[in-house]
Specification:
25% of the residues lie in helices and 21% in strands. The protein is built from five helices and twelve strands.
Length: 182
């Protein structure tokens, strides 16, 4: 199947998901991991309407006194990271995604940050399928820190087509509502 066909299939599977339940279970699995417990800075994302709800993670990040950085679409294909001290600051931005307002300055993510990455689907061998804009592929090509791909277990597909620039994830870097794959 092509990436377009796999995206269509993944979106169909997502439509049947209980995104709130999966988001809460994913958050609980995350909070039990040492990488979460040791993280001082978390790079996360505000979920789209078809993604597992990330608000429990965003709220807990701030409640734990961790530094929360969220992406803001910058120039075509690129993201800025912005520190958010209060979720009430978020507003709809590019593509209808909740993001930091334009008047908040971009910051450079620290190298020891925990990176939480979205996807449409992933294969067991770690091929991530994004939405096709390349924003996260460009970011991940030079990002430092611990990383976790947040993917519901129903969206771990037997095979995902890959291009040379697609970033791969190890099984222990793929977090489902049941925990990591390892």
């Amino acid at each position: 199947m092509t990436k377009r066909e796999v995206r269509t299939h993944a979106k169909t599977l997502r439509a049947a998901m209980d995104r709130e339940r999966i988001g809460c279970e994913m958050a609980q699995a995350l909070f039990a991991l040492p990488c979460w417990q040791h993280a001082q800075t978390v790079l996360a994302f505000a979920a789209l309407s078809d993604e597992p709800d990330t608000m429990p993670i965003l709220r807990q990040t701030l409640a734990d006194g961790k530094r929360l950085l969220l992406p803001r679409v910058a120039e075509a294909g690129c993201m800025d990271w912005v520190e958010i001290p209060d979720l009430a600051l978020l507003q709809r931005g590019a593509f209808g995604i909740l993001e930091p307002p334009a008047d908040c300055p971009a910051v450079r993510p620290p190298e020891e940050a925990l990176l939480l990455i979205p996807c449409l689907a992933v294969s067991p061998d770690g091929v991530r399928l994004g939405r096709g804009g390349g924003y996260y592929d460009r970011f991940l090509a030079h990002a430092k820190g611990s990383r976790l791909l947040l993917c519901p277990s129903a969206l771990i597909l037997p095979e995902v087509p890959a291009d040379s620039w697609d970033v791969r994830f190890a099984p222990e870097e793929i977090l489902t509502e049941k925990g990591t794959l390892v």
